[in-house]
Amino acid sequence: MASDVAKAAQLFLAHSGFVRGVALRHAPYPGLADDVAQQVLVEFLARAGERDLTTDVRPLLAAMTRTVALRLWRERTREMPDVLRRLAEHVHRLAEQRDAEPQYDDELAALRRCLDRLPDKSRELIDQYYFADRSAAAIGEHLGTRADTVCRAISRVREKLRDCISRSLNREAPDA
Questions:
Q1: Closest CA to 125 of 110, 116, 136, 111
Q2: Which of left, alpha, beta for 53 (phi over 0: left; psi -120 to 50: alpha)?
């Protein structure tokens, strides 16, 4: 039993930075993150004999840290005045939304398909302006036209891309 606790302590120390990072993500302020990390250590060591410590413990530590953070947050907010509690919960929800993975995969795939469908001249214009980071004036000079003409052309291409992406996403959306 003592060897399990010693091994668990070593594992925790090896992953303490990871635990602290997860705690900071789920705890609304740094002082609470320290409390979360300490509580995770206590709970991890208390159940050291029940766990297989030969596998990767990061998923376990991440789940434990999230659970402890939410529990400690609920306990702390119960002690707050009502107005402060509502504000704290609002800030916590905003932090959770910020940490959520952006859902741009469908939009990026549609953009790529739409870029591939553009005529060569339009695609070259977009490549030069956005990917080669050339100014409208430089593109206009290269093409023998004015910068404002290039800007209008880029604007029209962007509008076509917006329409194409919108149509593409509406076709892929499941029927309600």
A1: 136
A2: alpha
